[in-house]
Structures are given as structure tokens and as C-alpha cells.
Amino acid sequence: MVQVKGLTNSVAGMPAEELLAPGHTACPGCGQTLAVRIALKAIGRNAIACMATGCLEVSTGLYNRSAWRIPCIHMLFENAAAVASGIERAVKRMGKDTKVVVFAGDGGTIDIGFGALSGMLERGHNVIYICLDNEAYMNTGVQRSGATPYAAHTTTSPSGEVSIGNPRPKKDAPWIVAAHHIPYVATASSSYPKDLFRKVKRACEVDGPAYIQVHVPCPTGWGYDTSKTVEVGRLAVETALWVNYEVVDDEVTNVMKIGKRKPVEEYLKMQKRFRHLFASEEGRKEIERIQAIADYNARKFGLDEML
């Protein structure tokens, strides 16, 4: 287990200061803003945030208002990593130790902005990149992204008589990022705040690029009650459809074990984006395919091994 200086043992032990102010316009139950709150508690005030276009930018940075209590700059979908690279070099040239962090959605990271991200990683910039993965383009109408899971209904992968929803598997972005051989890659969930806090702290201590992909449930795009965000996020982990782990210096480590796995139906049935799978025999076959994805994850990361 990686030991982190200043790590708290409970959520209550995190810094009380809120660097993302209340009063923003995010949806009730937004997993994304929960993740950002926790991340900023770990990063602290001595930081500059670079924010790609997306839900976060719209809800926390409407014109002439800002919920950010640290310097924050908004870029386009495609250039957040490029702008962060420039800021990092400027900060270094000025002799300051200010941390540079990117917050971007899965569309801005895994699809549109991946070229800039890859360049930032390859050049070795000392930047923390946090991908807020809500598995679609939620800000512009719930369109499919490269991070959308198999068989999910979106407005551009609608389920119906000739379609089971998104026909492609979720892109394994953390693994692709790890192939750049950077010092630190991690996956996390907003439903496990202590784990997320520790990983952001760990990223702050890295000399070079660090990438954290955070699974952030979205009640609007996924279609569940706003009070169930933490429960839905935990079920993703408990079914092995999302795995929390770290890659430190090219070695997979600190995989979050889950004990006895739950069947994927428990996760799918809570969300309207998978509701069509329970309406027909063909849908049932697709659930079996999704269970096979979870089983693969369990084998790959040894999730069924004794705790």
C-alpha cells in the first residue's frame, strides 16, 4: 500500500475548507461535483485549475460568476492538456511550486482531447489530469462517448427494435494512458471519497504527469433518483463493472478488492439507460454479455481472490 503524507483516516478528517463553493448550478446528486470537491481538498489552494468544456464548466463558471476559490481557466474540449502544459512551464520558469490540475469529462479526455493529453504525457509535464467519467456527453444532450458502456441507451445510440443501445465496449483509457509509461495512473470513484482523496494526494507528490480517471454517476444522463448517486457508484465497483486500482511506475497495485461480487443486474436495473435490457429475451442475452465483461475484470484484477 502506498503511504501518503497527511492522509486522513476518515472523510470527516479531510480539510474542512471548500475550494468549490456552494451555490453552483450542477444537478442535484451530481457525482462530478462531489469528486471535484474531494479532489480540491487534497490539492489545496496553491493550484491552478484548467477546465475543459463540459458540465463542470457550465455549472460552476457561468459568465461573471465562479464557484472556484482557486485560479481557474476554461478551455475548449480539445486543448485542456495543451494549455495546462503551457501553464506548467510558465510556473516552473517563475520558480514557483504551484500545482497545475486539469478537470475534464470523458468526451473532452478520451475522444476530442486525447491528442493533446497524449502529447502532455509524452513530454512529461508535471500536471495532474483528472478525467471525470460520467460515460457520455451529458452537457450537450447525453450523446455517446468513447467511455459509454456496452448496451447503454444514449441519444446517439438509442435502444429500439434494431438496436440494443451502444454497440461498442467502453474504451480502456487508463490502460492507454499507462502505456505512456508515466509515473502515476489511477482509477477512482466519487462513491469512495477516502480512496479518491488518497489518490489525488499521491498524484500531488508525483514528479511528472499523473492521471486519475474518476467514475462519476450522473442522475440526469443515467436516469436514477438523485438520492442514489453514492449507491449507484458503489454498485459499479461491487459488480466489477468499474475497478479501482493504481499503476505506479508501470506496475498495477492497490487493486480495491470487493469480496463477494454482486450480479450486474443490481447495477443495471437502477438506471433508465439500461431499462430496455429487461424488456425482452434478447435484452437478457445482452445482460449476460455485460456479466461476462464484469467476469473478465474480476479475472484480470484478481477481484475474486480472498481479501
Automatic annotation (TrEMBL):
EC number: 1.2.7.1
Domain Thiamine pyrophosphate enzyme TPP-binding residues, every copy: 53-214
Record's keyword terms, sorted: Oxidoreductase, Pyruvate
CDD domains given in the database record: TPP_PFOR_porB_like (cd03376)
Primary enzyme class: oxidoreductase
Annotated signal sequence range: none
One Pfam match: TPP_enzyme_C
InterPro entries: PorB-like (IPR051479), THDP-binding (IPR029061), TPP_enzyme_TPP-bd (IPR011766)
Gene Ontology MF, one: thiamine pyrophosphate binding
Subunit structure: Heterotetramer of one alpha, one beta, one delta and one gamma chain.
NCBIfam families, per the entry: PRK11865.1
Name recorded for this polypeptide: Pyruvate synthase
